[in-house]
Amino acid sequence: MLRVLARTHSRHLRDSFPKALRYRELSAVADLPSHRMHSNKDQETTMNQPPKPGKPFVAALLAGLLFCSSTPSLSQTAPVAPPKRFSQLTMDNVPPQSLALAREIVAISSVGLAGPYNVMLRSPVFADRMKRLLDYLRFETSLPKRLNEFAILIQGRVWTSQVEWYAHYPLALKAGLSPSVADDLKAHIRPRNMQPDEEVVYDVCMDLIEKHEISDALFNRAKQILGEQQLVDLVAVSGTYVTVAMLLSLGEESSPADKPLPFPEKGR
What we know:
Layout: H1 2-16, H2 22-30, H3 40-47, H4 55-70, H5 99-108, H6 116-120, H7 124-140, H8 145-158, H9 162-174, H10 179-186, H11 196-210, H12 216-226, H13 228-251
Helix pairs in contact: 1-4, 2-4, 7-13, 8-9, 8-11, 8-13, 11-12, 12-13
């Protein structure tokens, strides 16, 4: 079998070399015995007959074929990701006036200084005020954490925000939101089997998004189930995460490159 392959490919190799070099060079590579030249006629006859491939020649030939079939073209290059709209800030290059704030962010952020923070920090005073608001809405709000994270996921789904869903989906489940509710939301389905307070959160958020208002009936139902402070905090967290989604869109920020995309249809 090796000899058949060698004969086939040696013919191809022979045609690809200059005539004056064909058999002498192949004979040298294959380490074949040199041909004795007794006369000009013998030399011409010998030069016009391809040598029989020996074992070294076969091995070298097959190794070359394997290399050619398995090695990508030199002209092919790996795709290069386009530069970020806002170059990535790190603890080494963050503006000096924002260094203390950056340390606070890194201590709690699942994406470090990436995501919305990479954009926010371009405006140091705004970034500081926004961080204080986010601290209240995430850690001090009157709204139960399960409902608070649900409201954030609603905005993440509406905006198809890779970062918001990546960061808050596990937090919502940890806070007690049913995976089936989150999965329905992700699939653009009104979640089934919601609890009464989750229905209020969903209806208030979606009506404000789609209609820019809520009916008296929905307001009274929300006020009865949530109370005034929780209802106000619900609207505050929803509006704030619209801002976060806009900042992410402005910077075309995405979830970590080594993690699956929450919304593959959108891409990075």
